[in-house]
Amino acid sequence: MKKYQLMAPGPTPVPSEVLLAMAQPMIHHRTPEYDALFAEVRAGLKTLVQTEQEVLPLACSGTGAMEAAVVNTLSAGDRVAVVRAGTFGERWIEICRAFRLDVLELAAPFGQTVPAERVAAALRAEPRLRAVLVQHSETSTGVLHDVRGYAAVTRASDALLIVDAVSSLGIADLPMDAWGVDVVVAGSQKGLMLPPGLGFCALGDRAWARTRTSTLPKYYLNLTEERRCVVKNEAHFTPAVSIVVGLRQVLRMLEREGLPNVFRRHDRLARATRAGAEALGLALFARATPSPAVTAVVAPPGVDSERIVAAYAAAHNITIAGGQGEMKGTLFRLGHMGYAAELDVIVALAALEQVLADLGQPVDFGAGVRAAQKVFAEKA
Ligand SMILES: *Cc1c(COP(=O)(O)O)cnc(C)c1O
């Protein structure tokens, strides 16, 4: 028997109390029971997203929520800017082009970021830009982009700031209202410790105003219709009832821990993971602020990173992730978001030492683990 451990940057492990909550008999969604469940979830989501706006759950993966953000706030032919510094930035571009939007790419080499000043310059050069679309945490490279800085410049313009927070909600601080972010998009299977299947969209006042003139086609993902139902604790279509039940449990857990502590925990896990990888002589892929959700590590010279991913699985029954797109073969990614604790990082690094040794790399056993433990020994 080899104990299974999921250490990928999504989906992430689901706590047993959440699994048990979701194993309850199915309830109907037009009942007083669902009304009470959803009332609690609605309030908890607002706290989590740090907004007074409704946070709309949708029965789709994170990408569905990304598409919802685009089709509800934009119109045919609109000019939009996209921060392209990883494969999720590319996904924004693909979605925008699928709906015939006119895309200005603000590109940076993968592993790097686009400074807010470049966004400001683009907005000055092209005042007709209708939106800026970015990731908060670019999961493919392990970089955290400067959403606060982007918001400071979009707020002073006519462009909406649309943020993919799929791998940052419940992981990194993103106070939507305080920063003036116009749209926040998230999903269930990363920091929220739930199975895949729920997407989330929260729109600020400027974004809601845009929905009134948006001409892009939408039916299932019509957020105006969705909000009309959500304010009555209902859903436009059959909601993903079981995941919403699990979500109530997750929101209670996060509230018990306290959001600042949730962010601190992820920051520590990420710092320890980076320290461990570097102590083993490995380079981090991130050349900008690293994400607290996931650490992208460059494979040693001459080693295909897919072999590291395969060795984790074969020798230790641990799922990590490799590189996506052009990064395939060059990096591997360790997820430390959601239901992740200090000793999970120790396990991931201990396994990394064994995997590297098995692949014929020189390893100072314990060096990675030791570096992580030193981070954890620091006073919080
Ligand atoms: C996981 C993820 C998504 C959504 O992916 P789905 O497979 O559609 O859930 C979007 N953006 C980022 C940054 C992600 O990490």
Describe this protein's structure.
It contains 14 helices and 14 strands. α2 crosses α10 (241-257). β8 (160-164), α7 (176-179) and β9 form a beta-alpha-beta unit. The mean pLDDT is 98. The protein has two domains: 5-11 and 258-377, Aspartate Aminotransferase, domain 1 (Alpha-Beta Complex), CATH 3.90.1150.10; 16-256, Type I PLP-dependent aspartate aminotransferase-like (Major domain) (Aspartate Aminotransferase, domain 2). The protein has 380 residues and is an alpha/beta fold. It is globular. A seven-stranded mixed beta sheet has the order 2-10-9-8-5-3-4, sandwiched between helices. It has helices at residues 16-22, 32-49, 62-73, 87-98, 116-125, 147-154, 176-179, 205-211, 223-230, 241-257, 259-279, 305-316, 342-358, 367-377, and strands at 5-6, 55-58, 79-84, 102-107, 131-135, 137-138, 143-144, 160-164, 183-187, 199-203, 294-298, 318-319, 321-322, 331-335. Bound molecules: pyridoxal-5'-phosphate. Residues 10, 61-63, 88, 135, 139, 164, 166-167, 187, 190, 196 line the site of pyridoxal-5'-phosphate (PLP).
